[in-house]
Amino acid sequence: MKQFKNDFPIYKNNPALIYLDSGATSLKPQAVVDAMSAYYSEYSANIKRGIYTISEKATEEYEKARETVAKFIGADTNEVIFTRNTTESINLVMYSLGTNIVGKGDEVVVSIMEHHSNFVPWQQLCLNTGASFKIINLDSDYHLSKDGNLPAGTITKRTKILALTHVSNVLGTVNHIKEIVAAAKKINSAIIVVVDGAQAVPHMKVDVKELGCDFYAFSGHKMLGPTGVGVLWGKKKLLEEMEPFLFGGEMIAEVRLDGTTFADVPEKFEAGTPAIAEAIGLGASIKYLESVGLDTIHNHELKLMKLYKERLNKELGDKITFYGPKIPEAGLLSFTIEGLHPHDIASLLNEDSIAVRAGHHCAMQLHTSLGLTGTTRISLNIYNSEDEVDNVVESISLAYKKLGASI
Prior knowledge:
The chain is an alpha/beta fold and about 400 residues long.
C-alpha cells in the first residue's frame, strides 16, 4: 500500500526501487531504525550487569522486547529465547535436545520443502547417530497434507522429531501445522515437533500454544526488524530439561571450582552479551506490524500475488511455469520461464530497479526433486503496491524478448 511505503527510508534513497525479495529479508521502517538509534545514542550499555541508570534502562528495554515477542506469538515470556536467527534457533534444539533423544533405530521426519536450516541439521543428526532420516514429499498441489494426516507410515512410535516449515519460502504453501501436530501426536504422543516460522510470523497471526508444537523459530530480519536477532520459542518443561548450547556470560548462576550452576530459562540459552539493539529493534518491528494489522498484511499480499500470477500467465502463457498451490496461500511466487535462466531474469530486472530472488532459495533438495536447478521468486510485503505489478510484468516480458525468445 502506498501509504506504508513512506515509512521505509530506503525508498527515499532508492526512489525507483521495486523490492520483491522480502522472503530473503524485509525492509526496515523508520520506527525500527529510530529504536535502535535511541539505544546507541541514549543508553548504550550492557544489560543485567551495570548498577547505573543507562544499564538499567538497556535491561528494561531488552526485556520489554521479550515481552512484546511473547505476546505477539501467544507465549509465556520466560519461554522466549533470543538467538541470532531461525538457523541458530533450530540448531540450538538439534544440539541441546536432539543429540540427547535421537539414537540408532530412531526416526527424524522432515519435508522436502524445508529451508536448508530445517533440513540439514536434522540430516546431520541422523548421519551422526544412525537414526533414519525420513522425508515427506509433496502432493500434486504442492501440499504435504490437506487434512492434517500425513502419508501413512510417516509418523511411527520410533519417530522422535518432526520438523516442518509453517510456510514454504519457495512454494508459498501454508502447512496446516495445528492439524498435522494433532495427528502426529495421536500416533506418537512423545514426538517433538519443531516448526520453522520464518515465513509465517511476519505475515499471519501465529499462536504457538494453539498450534500445539513444541518449538517454534523465526527471524527478526524477515519481519521488518534488524538482522542478527531471532527467536526460539519452546515449551518451558522441555527448555528446562535441555542442556545449554553455549557457555559463559549471563547464562551462569554460580561458578565453583568443582562445577557450575546455570541460570534459569530463558537466560540459560543466552550466553554472552546479546544483540541488545537488535532485540529492541525487533520489539519495534512487532509494534509496527501490529499497528498495520496482520490480517491487513496477509490479505494485501494475497491480492497482489493473485494479480502477479494472472498477469504473468496472460503475458507469457505456456512459456511460464509456476511452482506452488494453484490458488496462492502466501505472498510468495516462484516460477521458471522457458529458455531463460533464473539468474538472467533477475539480472535484467535489476536494470529496471526491480529486485527479485533467483536460485534455489536455500531449498536445493526441493528444486532437485522438481527437476530444477533454480527458480525466480517474487516475495511481497506491506510496502509493495498494485501499481508495481504492470511494471514488473512488462520488465519480465522484455527480459524474455531480449534473450531471443518469441512470445
